[in-house]
Specification:
The protein is mainly α. The protein has one domain. Helix content is 65%, strand content 7%. The chain has a two-stranded antiparallel ribbon with strand order 1-2. α1 crosses α2 and α1 packs across α3. The protein is elongated, with a radius of gyration of 17 Å. The model has no long low-confidence stretch (mean pLDDT 87).
Length: 92
């Protein structure tokens, strides 16, 4: 696809935004799965992080995969912690 020179920067910004959206969608599916999601689907979503496709999406999105993985691992660990009630509030 040929992009007019004056719109070339806009096209690259839009492309990067698209890949950031792909990454964000994968994040939500893995960390905050739908209540209707089957456990196998949730595990597949989580296994995608660290895969070759994950690294390619990070490159296209312009983000550092090691930083995303570090935050993903922390988010999963936090998500897996049992919640406790403290004075009527839920505390993680």
């Amino acid at each position: 696809m040929m992009v007019d020179h004056q719109y070339q920067h806009l096209a690259s910004v839009s492309c990067r935004a698209l890949w950031c959206a792909v990454l964000a969608n994968a994040w939500v599916e893995a960390i905050y799965p739908s209540s209707r999601a089957h456990p196998v689907e949730i595990q597949q979503s989580r296994n995608w992080f660290g895969s070759s496709d994950f690294f390619q999406v990070c490159a296209l999105a312009g983000v550092e995969p090691s930083q995303v993985m570090m935050k993903f691992t922390a988010a999963i660990a936090l998500r897996n912690q049992p919640t406790r009630r403290v004075r009527g509030r839920v505390r993680v």
